[in-house]
């Protein structure tokens, strides 16, 4: 294992607290080009989740975890980029046509416009139609801070580029710097036991209710599904996520639900009452406004493992601000540092959406640790993670190099069998991690949102 990977694993395990865990061993050469150690972050976050799976599997059978888990750094790098290779069709575009970085009068700003209502909010503030040239001209006349404020106020998503120093001097950046990488809060005791253990599928019978969208939360639940968990994803009927659903819907049943209606909230409560894990990535106050605050969720399901995701942390003034990986990279200094190191003239983000992916595996790691706690004590856990906290881990971590390269996947890196997705056949990358007697697999191919009933 590289020193950088070991440093990240040590930080992750420190955040979770002491518990017996198998070692993580890595293989594979090369690294993604970045001034940050992105490939080591990929191997460490995936390896941490894998080591918790191995420990939970052993403890479910009354044993102590032994041996080591294996992570291929090269394959982990590509799971951070994309795991599906279409056969005879093309993946939908990952980005809306006006999403991206623009030069304002005093710096750079990034617009995130993949969702129609986020796009509409940005265009309303800019008072222009959706041609990229007109957006660029409108942005160039404004200051980054005022434009960021105006778009966010209108319900859109934007982030001004800041340096790391400016971020840490900002009230929200200062708050995030004081927050833990992973927060764990003990809750209620469960009235029932976990399902009987399965030798090869450690999470078989575990019910996971998934209220997450792009991208960290769905990566968390995809990992849990790979070990046998019954994952039910819930989305409003109007939600679209075409660019990433083939990537993250693997192994899940996906249903529509309207949480703004009483009937939808009643259905959600019924599903929650039988769930073991709830994973949600709504803004911090969203479920509370629907009548499902933390206390209510625990009353509905005592012993619930409640995994919460936020973009900009949990204690600062931006706690309820919409945010995505690309925006957090702009806000916290990552894109500025990349530009500076490359002597470039525009923001240089990470080569992949590494904050999303790493945070997704950290959420999975913490969820499985919470299952181990429930196995031993019967107690539930509330888990809090944030993209901005993962950004702090990255910025404080080891350096990488813009000269790094990683070998592209070979034919042997893909599953032999075609995956019959809703969009056409494709091949999925083999999992980047394994342990003795344990290997990942998914029972369902990736498919469209809303194709199943909202029921266990």
Topology diagram in text:
Layout: H1 3-16, E1 23-27, H2 38-60, E2 68-72, H3 73-79, E3 84-86, E4 100-104, E5 107-111, H4 116-126, H5 132-139, H6 144-153, E6 158-160, H7 164-169, H8 171-177, E7 183-189, E8 207-211, H9 216-225, E9 230-235, H10 245-248, E10 253-256, H11 262-272, E11 277-280, H12 286-289, H13 294-300, E12 305-310, H14 325-332, H15 334-341, H16 354-377, E13 379-386, H17 387-396, E14 419-421, E15 424-428, E16 433-434
Parallel strand pairs: 1-2, 8-9, 8-11, 9-10, 11-12, 12-13
Antiparallel strand pairs: 2-16, 3-15, 4-5, 5-6, 7-13, 14-15
Helix pairs in contact: 1-2, 2-3, 2-16, 4-6, 9-16, 14-17, 16-17
Give the helix/strand class. Answer: alpha/beta
Whole-angstrom Rg: 21 Å
Low-confidence stretches: none
Total helical segments? 17
Fraction of residues in H or I helices: 25-40%
Strand content: 15-25%
Mean pLDDT: 95
Query: How would the global form be characterised?
Result: globular
Number of strands: 16
How far do the termini sit from each other? 41 Å
Major sheet details: 7 strands, mixed
Main sheet: strand order:
7-13-12-11-8-9-10
Description:
α1 packs across α2 (38-60), α2 runs parallel beside α16 and α16 (354-377) crosses α17. It is globular, with a radius of gyration of 21 Å. The chain is an alpha/beta fold and 456 residues long. The two termini are 41 Å apart. It has helices at 3-16, 38-60, 73-79, 116-126, 132-139, 144-153, 164-169, 171-177, 216-225, 245-248, 262-272, 286-289, 294-300, 325-332, 334-341, 354-377, 387-396; strands at residues 23-27, 68-72, 84-86, 100-104, 107-111, 158-160, 183-189, 207-211, 230-235, 253-256, 277-280, 305-310, 379-386, 419-421, 424-428, 433-434. 49% of the residues are buried. It contains 17 helices and 16 strands. A hairpin with a 2-residue loop joins β14 (419-421) and β15 (424-428).
